[in-house]
Specification:
With 185 residues, this protein is an alpha+beta fold. 27% of the residues lie in helices and 30% in strands. The chain has helices spanning 61-72, 77-81, 92-100, 102-114, 161-167, 181-184, and strands at 8-13, 16-26, 31-36, 42-47, 51-53, 57-59, 116-118, 124-128, 134-135, 137-139, 145-146, 155-156, 175-177. β10 (137-139) and β11 (145-146) form a beta hairpin. α3 packs across α4 (102-114).
């Protein structure tokens, strides 16, 4: 298995399983240096075949945002999962995500404990057919709808579903997946 600097890994050191981060690759000896997450943290060399990469769970961006918010406010896992905690401001989409599938609660807990990757949401162009406006463009510093050409400097032209619906839900009817951009031309 190929590792790169910054990878989260697990290794057995002194008969105990530890997690750590790859800090250096030693190509000549097929070893990696890992900063083990123990107190105090220690850097240790391992043969690459003695270490396994930690596979992080994938969560939607809104879940990642909620985890960041909770950790920023020093909440524990219990408070993060409890939408009635103090004056919890758990976003409705997070509540629905956890209520609609019990497996998502386990994914949330695993993300909280082990870390996570954010799912990449599909991107869309928003094409208007009337008035010759072309594609929806939003200026980076604020929402400003312009009728300039796609890809102009300083403007955003690709949006997630939630971004489109947050601007105006009616725009969703004009969404075209970015992967289908060849059909647009």
């Amino acid at each position: 298995m190929k590792f790169k600097k910054g990878d989260l890994v697990e290794a057995i050191w002194r008969s105990e399983l530890y997690r750590g981060t790859v800090t250096r690759l030693v190509e000549a000896t097929d070893e990696i240096e890992v900063k083990l997450a123990k107190k105090p943290a220690i850097d240790y060399l391992f043969k690459q075949n003695r270490v396994s990469k930690v596979e992080l769970v994938k969560v939607p961006k809104f879940v990642a945002d909620w985890i960041k918010y909770c950790k920023k406010h020093y909440w524990g896992l219990f408070e993060a999962l409890d939408d009635t905690y103090e004056s919890s401001c758990m976003p409705e989409e997070v509540t629905e995500w956890m209520e609609n599938c019990h497996e998502n609660q386990e994914i949330f807990a695993r993300a909280w404990l082990d870390g996570y990757e954010v799912e990449q949401e599909p991107l869309y162009y928003v094409r208007f057919f009337d008035g010759g406006l072309g594609f929806l463009n939003v200026y980076f510093t604020g929402v400003r709808l312009l009728s300039c050409h796609r890809g102009s400097e300083g403007y955003k032209t690709k949006f997630t579903e939630s971004e489109i619906k947050n601007m105006d839900a009616r725009y969703w009817a004009f969404a075209i997946p970015v992967s289908d951009e060849e059909e647009i031309k």
